[in-house]
């Protein structure tokens, strides 16, 4: 069948890393000598990346090699205190025993579950169901909370539903003005940059907002470099100029939106001169940006983590959405607002129930109708479903307190969480930690039991890309002996805890149940099947199943929804909502003791916590370790030169890494990538101040001081 898509040329599938989910083909290595016997080749027929891959995708077969990953369960020995190889029966028995015991002794909410945005839709769905049914706990959340939850919250608030991009990525190439806010596409998802290049070849304008002159910013017609933590003021300043210069789309505001007067008043309080003082962006640059954006026939704003990972991330994204609404962009062709999701299944991972406040289909857990629908699919009483739990950081912070046992799957918070040393300490304080992972990550090293699981090319499952396109990752290779799929692990644990049925290990069976659970919800997958995804190169949600279902006599299938909001928004009255927002300072502003700003991000050759990419030789040679990027003026003040070891100190800890001196950063700001553990761990420094709506931590700005590290 097309689902298998095995041919002599290989198996068509998708990259294990970022949300672009590039199409690729895995085939037997040409010389047969590769460490895995497989190699990644181009798959030009897939329309999003059309064969292009970044270095991470090209080398993705290497993480399948047995020597870089776990191939048998590990159990912490009572005598040596070390993790030692064990059989599956013993390991699963220990985990099930700990889950049951904690529940019995301390109540269901003493058991926590922490998932990941890299898990397939099927795994995210099964994990959420396992937590709420088998464990009966409300304490489940996932690392996607650290990724783009502010954009999701702001999108839902304004449009009634959040889908990263409400239009295909290819629309970027045909708009007239693109504003990229806090996105370094050139390094985070290089194949997507092609659309930006096409945009410029077509005569479109590119504005990049980033405190660093990144490789992406270098391509811009206009690069605005605001002080970290002030994107909100910048967006309000642009809206102020749009109002003052009469560049609004008043008909659109009247017919397609609500709440404009309040949003207008908030923007009018942000005079350009005030915005210049707050952001450091000169008024003429503000005027030029407002002119380019407002005068363009079609225009769009895309945000990424830059404006989102803040204690005011939801309002910051809201300010950019307000600018788009006031100029009549969302729901119009080649225009609008979108968020560039980060993790491989960042979109689908947040739709199917591993988030503290959500049920499958992107339904709210506190909505009685949603509870009744999902409970019906699961065959349980809606009243038996727990309510919303804590957000990711709050859950991690509660470990060893009222949450005593944790099941961690597909995440490495020791490296990726804010205030990481504290999080590490909380993980150590647990009564019991069980980790399902592919490799022995820094977090897995702390576990009582580690369960080795399969990864991308060793299992079939779906992911949902940043476009809302549901894709099929196909199994292309058998896993090493001794490794099981996450679904098999959940099936086995559920059985040991008294649930013989309801947790199938077959991904297509799980997907079929997910379809039913999502039916009628905002992210409706009911009309999507593995066969359709395979035949159509992905299907965009919502895609409801037509009344009458499939089969003979049924209505034609729903085509899926490439572009949202063309006629109405997903709000009760169909109107997009302006939300009045005001600039406010970061949770931590520089002072005498910590006079500089730290911002964090990614580099081209590593991915997230680096658990996979640090194990790939070519990627590691290209990006072997952390660094501190700083302006020559600051370097001179410190008496430091390129390569000198610097110590960065915040109120939460310190990190040591070599200096990288560049004019491409503001003199008041230093930058560190966050992919590493050890003394260069950037997240030892970051702040856990949370956004009140999205509960996103403030990764993107905190106060630090920088010193030259002592010898040795
Ligand atoms: Fe993989 Fe993202 Fe690179 Fe594409 S851009 S090859 S999806 S890491």
TrEMBL record:
List all membrane-crossing ranges: none
Would you kindly state one Gene Ontology biological process term found in this protein's UniProt entry?
A: respiratory electron transport chain
> Is RNA-binding found in the keyword set?
no
Which GO CC terms are listed, alphabetically? membrane
Recorded GO terms, molecular function?
4 iron, 4 sulfur cluster binding; metal ion binding; molybdopterin cofactor binding; NADH dehydrogenase activity
Lipid metabolism found in the keyword field: no
SMART domains listed in its UniProt record: Molybdop_Fe4S4 (SM00926)
In what residue span(s) does the 4Fe-4S Mo/W bis-MGD-type domain sit? 8-68
Record key words, sorted = 4Fe-4S, Iron, Iron-sulfur, Metal-binding
Recorded hits in SUPFAM superfamilies, A to Z, give: ADC-like, Formate dehydrogenase/DMSO reductase, domains 1-3
> What protein name does the entry list?
Nitrite reductase
């Amino acid at each position: 069948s097309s689902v298998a898509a095995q041919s002599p040329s290989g198996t068509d599938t998708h990259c294990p890393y970022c949300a672009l989910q590039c199409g690729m083909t895995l085939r037997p290595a040409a010389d047969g000598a590769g460490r895995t016997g497989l190699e990644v080749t181009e798959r030009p027929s897939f329309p999003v990346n059309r064969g292009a891959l970044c270095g991470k995708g090209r080398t993705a077969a290497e993480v399948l090699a047995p020597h870089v990953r776990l191939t048998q369960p590990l159990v912490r020995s009572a005598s040596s205190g070390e993790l030692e190889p064990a059989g599956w029966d013993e390991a699963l028995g220990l985990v099930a025993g700990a889950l049951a015991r904690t529940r019995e002794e301390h109540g269901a909410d003493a058991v926590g579950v922490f998932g990941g945005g890299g898990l397939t839709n099927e795994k995210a769905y099964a994990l959420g169901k396992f937590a709420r049914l088998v464990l009966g706990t409300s304490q489940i959340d996932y690392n996607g909370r650290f990724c783009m939850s502010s954009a999701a919250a702001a999108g839902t608030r304004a449009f009634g539903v959040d889908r990263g991009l409400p239009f295909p990525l290819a629309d970027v190439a045909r708009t007239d003005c693109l504003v990229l806010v806090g996105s370094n596409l050139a390094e985070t998802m290089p194949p997507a940059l092609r659309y930006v290049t096409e945009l410029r070849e077509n005569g479109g304008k590119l504005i990049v907002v980033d405190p660093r002159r990144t490789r992406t910013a270098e391509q811009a017609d206009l690069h605005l470099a605001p002080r970290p933590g002030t994107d909100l003021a910048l967006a309000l300043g642009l809206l102020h100029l749009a109002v003052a210069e009469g560049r609004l789309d008043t008909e659109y505001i009247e017919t397609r939106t609500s709440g404009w007067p309040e949003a207008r008043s908030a923007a009018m309080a942000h005079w350009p001169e005030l915005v210049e003082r707050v952001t450091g962006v000169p008024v003429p640059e503000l005027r030029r940006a407002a002119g380019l954006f407002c005068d363009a026939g079609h225009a769009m704003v895309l945000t990424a983590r830059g404006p989102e990972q803040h204690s005011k991330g939801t309002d910051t994204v809201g300010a950019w959405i307000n600018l788009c609404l006031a100029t009549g962009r969302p729901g119009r062709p080649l225009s609008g607002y979108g968020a560039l999701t980060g993790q491989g299944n960042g979109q689908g991972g947040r739709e199917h129930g591993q988030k503290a406040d959500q049920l499958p289909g992107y339904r709210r857990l506190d909505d009685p109708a949603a509870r009744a629908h999902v409970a019906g699919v699961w065959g349980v009483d809606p009243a038996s479903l727990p309510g919303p739990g804590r957000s990711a950081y709050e859950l991690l912070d509660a470990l060893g307190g009222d949450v005593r046992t944790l099941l961690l799957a597909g995440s490495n918070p020791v490296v990726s969480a804010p205030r990481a040393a504290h999080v590490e300490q909380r993980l150590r304080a647990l009564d019991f930690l069980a980790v399902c992972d592919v490799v022995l990550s820094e977090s897995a090293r702390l576990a009582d039991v580690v369960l080795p699981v399969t990864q991308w090319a060793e299992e079939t499952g779906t992911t949902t890309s940043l476009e809302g396109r549901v894709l099929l990752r196909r199994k292309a290779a058998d896993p090493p002996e001794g490794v099981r799929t996450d679904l098999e692990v959940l099936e086995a644990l559920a059985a040991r805890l008294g649930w013989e049925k309801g947790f199938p290990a077959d991904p297509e069976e799980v997907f079929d149940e997910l379809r039913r659970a999502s039916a009628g919800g905002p992210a409706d997958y009911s009309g999507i099947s593995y066969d359709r995804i395979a035949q159509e190169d992905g299907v965009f949600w919502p895609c409801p199943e037509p009344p009458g279902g499939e089969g003979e006599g049924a209505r034609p299938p729903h085509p899926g929804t490439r572009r949202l909001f063309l006629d109405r928004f997903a709000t009760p009255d169909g109107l997009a909502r302006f939300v009045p927002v005001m600039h406010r300072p970061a949770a931590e502003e520089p002072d005498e003791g910590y006079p500089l700003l730290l911002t964090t991000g990614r580099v081209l050759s590593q991915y997230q916590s680096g658990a996979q990419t640090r194990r790939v030789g070519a990627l590691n040679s290209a990006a072997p370790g952390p660094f501190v990027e700083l302006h020559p003026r600051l370097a001179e003040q410190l008496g430091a030169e390129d390569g000198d070891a610097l110590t960065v100190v915040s109120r939460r800890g310190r990190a040591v890494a070599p200096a990288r001196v560049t004019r491409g950063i503001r003199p008041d700001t230093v930058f560190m990538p966050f992919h590493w553990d050890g003394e260069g761990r950037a997240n030892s420094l970051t702040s856990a101040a949370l956004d009140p709506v999205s509960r996103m931590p403030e990764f993107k700005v905190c106060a630090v001081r920088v010193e030259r590290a002592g010898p040795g």
